[in-house]
Amino acid sequence: MKLVLGVSGSISAYKAVDILRLFQKNGHDVSLVMTRAATRFIAPLTFETFVPGRVFCEMFAPGQDPLLHINLARNNDLLLVAPASADIIGKMAGGIADDLLSTVFCAFYQRVVVAPAMNSHMLDNPAVADNLGRLRSRGVEVIEAETGPLANLETGRGRLPDADAIYRHCLNLARV
Ligand SMILES: Cc1cc2nc3c(=O)[nH]c(=O)nc-3n(C[C@H](O)[C@H](O)[C@H](O)COP(=O)(O)O)c2cc1C
């Protein structure tokens, strides 16, 4: 499978390394798109080490393919956004395309999977819940966040499932 792994600005962004490695280990072809906020949590260099030349963070980067957003959409079978922040979920639900990841999503016409990860109060926020519902109703696959210890050490719903669960979910979807 050829996929774009979109990483957004969540404290769990570091877990995307395990997700990337698992897809790679199983022979899948992965390109990375990081939001600016994601780069505050994990350095692009970490991903660059595993997929040299295939880590993209900016819409308007000098020397970059000007039609990168269209070509990433055209050349991949799956867009997996993991972790998906409340913000990127809102942009995806609202059709906002103001950075590379949200623009790739708008151009993407194959399967899209999002794995939300955030504080439980954010996840329960009616606007966030509504946005996830809108995405589901349009055929976007939403992987449920898990319950467990959160960043503030409270226990609640909002944890990113582990790489294995996300991988299996995507693989099952690809078989349908
Ligand atoms: C320490 C810290 C942890 C954060 N963790 C999350 C998170 O897990 N989920 C989330 O939706 N937002 C989280 N945020 C807020 C996002 O980073 C913020 O909304 C950002 O604008 C998201 O941008 P993006 O969607 O372009 O990546 C966190 C912010 C900080 C400072």
Which key terms come to mind for this protein?
single chain, 176 residues, alpha/beta, Rossmann fold, 9 helices, 8 strands, globular, binds flavin mononucleotide
Q: How would you explain this protein's 3D organization?
A:
The chain is of the alpha/beta class and 176 residues long. The protein has a single domain, classed as Rossmann fold. It contains nine helices and eight strands. The protein has helices spanning 16-25, 38-41, 44-50, 68-74, 86-94, 100-107, 120-124, 126-137, 163-175, and strands at 2-7, 29-34, 55-56, 78-84, 111-116, 141-142, 146-149, 155-159. The strands form two sheets. A six-stranded parallel beta sheet has the order 3-2-1-4-5-6, with helices on both faces. A two-stranded antiparallel sheet has the order 7-8. A hairpin with a 5-residue loop joins strand 7 and strand 8 (155-159). Helix 4 crosses helix 6. The protein is globular. It starts with a strand and ends with a helix. 41% of the residues are buried. The model has no long low-confidence stretch (mean pLDDT 96). Bound molecules: flavin mononucleotide (FMN).
